[in-house]
Amino acid sequence: MTDEGYIKFSCDWTKGPPFENAAIAELNTWRRPLFDAGLVGQYEDTGVGFGNMSMRSGSDVQFIISGTQTGHLADLTGAHYAEVTDYDIQDNRITCHGPVKASSESLTHAAIYELDPTIQAIVHVHNDTLWHELRNTIPTTDPTVTYGTPDMAEEFRRLYCDTDFTSSKIAVMGGHHGGLISIGHDMAEAAHRFLDIATTA
User: Domains of the chain by range and CATH?
Assistant: First the structure.
């Protein structure tokens, strides 16, 4: 079974109206080329979506992230995002609001935002070719650690402290087949890290 798309943390979700703001427009501007490149999408054999993206919003702990199981959609609207307003990594819990629940990767995004206030955007994609080529040649999380868990959050802290993740701004999720993460000062930077290498792969 594909290890993707399933929420593994406690999600305190308050249903709310669709978002209408500049952040949604920016997220969607960069999501479509990622979708067209096959970096965000849906596995045909399982029907499970993959890939997500987020941007900081409001306070240090808040960010807007694509909703769970939206990978199959070519274009998203404000009805397909959630805002994470609080989280506790050790308790494996997030609090969010919006028309849909936050992505199953939300806890990992939260942990990465904790690392550095200059990280303003995160992109998570899937590509088997890039995953095999880059695994263990760039910062790579422990292959025994799965996504959406406190252990994955700790792994990104390790990468931040012990590898060149801060300068490369891209990492392989070793225990999440096909999964890669990029960070940026804005969504354009984070998205381009994958779009640039995908076109040359």
Answer: 10-198 (3.40.225.10)
